[in-house]
Amino acid sequence: MRKVAIAGNWKMYKTQTEALEFLQNFLPTLETTPEDRDIILCAPFTTLASMSKNLHGSRVQVGAQNIHWEDAGAYTGEIAGPMLTEIGVRFVVVGHSERRQYFGETDETVNLRLKAAQKNRLTPILCVGETKAQRDAGETESHLFGQIERGLVGVDQNHLIIAYEPIWAIGTGDTCAADEANRVIGLIRSRLKNPDTTIQYGGSVNPKNVDELMAQPEIDGALVGGASLTAESFSRIVNYQ
Ligand code: 13P
User: Fold this and answer.
1) Going by CA atoms, what residue is nearest to atom 2 of ligand 1?
2) Which of 38, 43, 109, 237 has a 20 to 30 A CA-CA distance from 61?
3) What is the chain's alpha carbon radius of gyration, rounded to the nearest angstrom?
């Protein structure tokens, strides 16, 4: 059985105070949320410890947005698996297109980070996606298959979430059509050893389009950026119908 996972990716937003304010407004809205879905918040490092404390006993799980491949070392500015697990982090976003674009992340470093996450018993959320130019050139499939193949060498597909995030749909309001996201996710699934891997869609998911996206048979969840930043809109998303 494939698991449904709705995750917020807060990116570089929210101080600790703002994060706790969010939780105060968000948690009460989960009382009637169906049990069939996991809820994850991937928050900035400085908020993780207090988020984790405040979410104890709730159904919301905490995720980070990066992990280094070593457990410790001289890697200024990086964060290690044991630092995350010690404070109750359970998930980590790996290979987000913003990290690939601005911080030189490659399929090879993505692969190392995925393996480090699993070694530390964190579930990585591997992000893959094509640019507009790649899509227009008919290279969507070959690009995604390459990212998957190189990224997943030696990675356990039983403890993994994949997020299909077309880069042209991120932060643009230009959501991928639900049937197209469904088609591409089906193709990604066909390349996996474990067809039951949870595969999310990400890219301008919002309260208005979430129901249609989640109604697609291949889409097992959402990775939500901008619309996860207010309790009201993220609550509507996790309570999709
Ligand atoms: P938006 O939902 O803001 O488009 O961001 C998507 C994303 O990058 C999630 O990781």
Assistant:
1) 225
2) 109
3) 17
Q: Checking DSSP bridges between strand 60-64 and strand 91-94, what pairing results, if any?
A: parallel
Distances (CA, A) of 62 to 88, 135, 171, 182: 7, 33, 22, 27
31: annotated active-site residue: no
Domains by residue range for the chain, with CATH: 34-228 (3.20.20.70)
**Has 96 been annotated as catalytic?**
yes
Q: Is the CB of 124 under 6 A from ligand 1?
A: no
Apex CA 19: angle with CA 16 and CA 20, to 5°? 90
Helices 140-151 and 107-119, interaxial angle, to 10°? 40
C-alpha 43/C-alpha 180 separation (Å) is 29
Strands (E), 129-225: 161-164, 198-202, 221-224
Backbone angles phi, psi at 239, to 5 degrees: -95, 30
Q: How does pLDDT run across 12-26, given as a tens digit for each residue?
A: 999 999 999 999 999
pTM given for the model: 0.98
Selecting among 98, 105, 130, 165, the annotated active-site residue is 165
Q: Are 203 and 165 in contact (CB under 8 A)?
A: yes
